[in-house]
């Protein structure tokens, strides 16, 4: 609901309750309270509207197969808001699953519909974030490879990342693990060797996709994975706390 309409409704409600008195004896905040607390259960229009906006945020954050189509469209619109380092060799996918903040002010934000801006601002206001106490290995694998929430600064490198993104189409942590796997393969014929001309099946396949140095890309994937914080690292086991 537009703010001017919200304000008009609040004003109309106040005038109706107090017969347009200039100095109401009791403020509206008190009237919003239940009768047991000295109020009259008056509808708090502002809080109701904010609650509706939170339900939109909830729907947008739904990453299950039942996620609404409009949420994917909103992903594309938000991801087009390029922050200063958004093009620094990193692929933007979902601001709530990645460590980057889209602008909500200035010329860049004006390309977003008002409803989209409301969703972002509402989420920021209530500190909505992806913050699981524990994550299964499967969830960690599904998280984005780029702007990963567990990646410290200087994890990514524009030049090194380019081939992983464009040639290998790496999007998730699972994709990075698959690319890295050849480095630890101890069986097979032929084995992977740390050379640009490695003849293992994975490197041959990648060269056919026009990757100039598959071993180097595998090393880059390994470097990114090794820098992830323990909570987001698939090799780290969660500490036993008796909660689950």
Question: Can you walk me through this structure?
Answer:
By secondary structure, the chain is mainly α. The chain contains ten helices and no strands. Helix 8 packs across helix 10.
Number of helices: 10
Radius of gyration: 25 Å
Terminus-to-terminus distance: 42 Å
Task: Please state the structural category.
Answer: mainly alpha
Keywords:
0% strand
Write the topology of this structure:
Layout: H1 3-17, H2 28-31, H3 45-60, H4 69-79, H5 114-125, H6 137-142, H7 158-166, H8 173-180, H9 201-208, H10 214-227
Helix pairs in contact: 3-5, 8-10
Give me a quick take on this structure.
The protein has helices at residues 3-17, 28-31, 45-60, 69-79, 114-125, 137-142, 158-166, 173-180, 201-208, 214-227. The two termini are 42 Å apart. The chain is mainly alpha-helical and 244 residues long.
């Amino acid at each position: 609901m537009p703010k001017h309409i919200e304000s008009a409704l609040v004003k109309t409600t106040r005038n109706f309750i107090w017969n347009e008195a200039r100095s109401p004896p009791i403020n509206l905040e008190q009237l919003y309270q239940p009768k047991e607390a000295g109020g009259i259960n008056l509808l708090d229009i502002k809080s109701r509207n904010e609650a509706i906006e939170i339900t939109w945020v909830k729907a947008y954050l739904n990453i299950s197969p039942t996620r609404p189509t409009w949420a994917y469209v909103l992903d594309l619109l938000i991801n087009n808001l390029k922050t200063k380092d958004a093009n620094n060799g990193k692929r933007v996918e979902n601001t709530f699953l990645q460590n980057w903040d889209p602008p909500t002010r200035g010329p860049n934000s004006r390309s977003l519909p008002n409803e989209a801006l409301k969703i972002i601002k509402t989420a920021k206001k209530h500190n909505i974030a992806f913050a699981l106490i524990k994550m299964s290995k499967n969830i960690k694998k599904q998280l984005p490879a780029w702007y990963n929430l567990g990646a410290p600064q200087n994890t990514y490198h524009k030049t090194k990342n380019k081939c992983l993104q464009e040639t290998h189409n790496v999007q998730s942590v699972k994709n990075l693990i698959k690319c890295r796997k050849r480095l630890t393969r101890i069986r097979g014929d032929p084995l992977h060797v740390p050379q640009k001309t490695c003849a293992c099946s994975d490197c041959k396949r990648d060269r056919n996709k026009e990757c100039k140095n598959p071993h180097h890309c595998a090393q880059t994937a390994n470097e990114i994975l090794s820098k992830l914080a323990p909570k987001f690292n698939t090799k780290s086991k969660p500490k036993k706390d008796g909660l689950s």
